[in-house]
Amino acid sequence: MKYYCIGIKGSGMSTLAQILYDLGNEVSGYDDVRDYKFTQDGLDERNIPIYYDQSHSIDPETIVTYSAAFAPDHKEIVRVQELGLKIQSYHDLLGDLTRQFATICVAGTHGKTTTSSLIAHILSHTMGCNYFIGDGTGYADKKNQLFVLESCEFQKHFMAYSPTYAVITNIELEHTECYNGLDDIIHHFEIFANKATKGIVACGDDQNIRKIHFEKDVLYYGLKEDNDIVAKNVSFDEKGSSFDVWIDQKLFGHFQLPLFGLHMVLDTLACIGICHLQGISSDKIHELLLTFVNARRRFKEEQVGTNILIDDYAHHPTEIKVTLEAARQKYPDKRLVVVFKPNTYSRTVEMTDDFVKALQVADDVYMTEIDANREKQSDFPGVTSSMILDQIPNGKLISEDTISLLKDYQNTVICFFSCASVAHLIERYKEMMQ
Description:
The chain is α/β, with parallel strands linked by helices. It folds into three domains: 2-88, Rossmann fold (3-Layer(aba) Sandwich), CATH 3.40.50.720; 93-289, Mur-like, catalytic domain (UDP-N-acetylmuramoyl-L-alanine:D-glutamate ligase, 3-Layer(aba) Sandwich), CATH 3.40.1190; 300-433, Alpha-Beta Complex (Protein-Tyrosine Phosphatase, Chain A), CATH 3.90.190. It contains 13 helices and 21 strands. The chain has a ten-stranded mixed beta sheet with strand order 8-7-9-6-10-11-12-13-14-15, sandwiched between helices. Helix 1 links the parallel strand 1 (2-6) and strand 2 (26-30). Helix 5 (112-124) packs across helix 7 and helix 9 (317-330) runs parallel beside helix 11 (352-359). The chain is globular and about 60 Å long.
């Protein structure tokens, strides 16, 4: 079959395109962004064509899918509609894939990408698996029976999926533009999880997950003793984390992890739960965890002079908080600075106080204006980054043109946070320091 992916450089769409190609389909795509994006690496490796205008023809038998970041009146979407091409939604296409394999759907407000990456890393080196990771990494082989799918709750996309196993890492208020409050979010996670045909792995330390009525067998994991999978003797140092894991009150094994922060321990427990259900030994899990490299834009580090730059996808207050704590763990003697590009007006206005609290963990805070490609500022009058900055004594507004505000920092960890791209900010900073 032939597929045409509009917004193909988006992290999710790029991953889907790679998987469709690996399964033997002819794939091409369109994007507005001509500049290089790391999410196109897998496309380039497969020689998947990317177009940037409307001068190319499209086979009439092609199935079109498009990113939610593209408005229905986008010129390329209008063109394929006028051509009479079949259009299938992104999440429905993924839903079809979940029914072709034994699918492990990893959902949650935070930690989906890391947890999916951990599971895919171990399963691909043991049993073999296909995987869809939300950092633009995808792979598939028709011979594999297992499929690890990062399952996003945005716009209720995960409702289209058919999990064999469901993983829920945590539940918090998020995506307020498409859910009617926290209870509505919990309700949809419940529907999603109960679609699992074989089992559920869920964080039992999360009070919102504990509100769910699970109809299937569930393995709870966490630090508290009332879980089925429990991490004990947890310790942290500048090299990572180590802990013992008990399953059903029996010692399963000791694990070391080259990742930082308690949230990474919890993500690893979810991974261990799935691997245990697949019959993988503790020794093999331990061996493979030592070789794990986290997903792209998850605590990505680079040294520039005496400073450490960290590029991270963190965009929710909880994600910012735990990532800053992880930076403190690894670099306890360095000053900690944040450069944050907030995303969406709705999230900013709903979580202003939480952002203030999370960002104040840093020594100094810089914020850009709000990036919102799927919302109009006219719908949110008065909502700006100043709502947060005005409550942070050490907070300042920053942009590419004022990156010189960072020039005097030495022996400092500078964290660039956003789910939008901050690559231009980082490049401007590096150019300045040269």
